Amino acid sequence: MSTTRRRRPALIALVILGAVGCLLLAWWQWTRFESSSGSFQNLGYALQWPMFAGFCVYAYYKFVRLDEAPPAEPKPDSEIPAGLLPERPRQASAADDDDPTLREYNAYLAELAKTDKEDTE
To answer: What is the model's pTM?
Structure first.
């Protein structure tokens, strides 16, 4: 027996409690609408709460159906079409080392790292 089946009475009680609570709130909003201080907002709420109660029952129904027959697994062999994703940035190649400005900047960074390492020691 699965754990879901063992918990099913508790879930049913929770659904009933939620649905009854929603229907009680609908009745309360209806009595507020009928009172002298009631407004159409109370009428709107009185019509909404039964839908919430119905949603509690519907959600439980879908939960039980999915528990008994889970959806089929998607195919793992599907591929992403070429050109759909952006290209990855390329790594620096040996041709980039021919740039004198880049070599000078890298030498400057190496010198900074060396002086920083000497200062921390």
So the answer is: 0.54
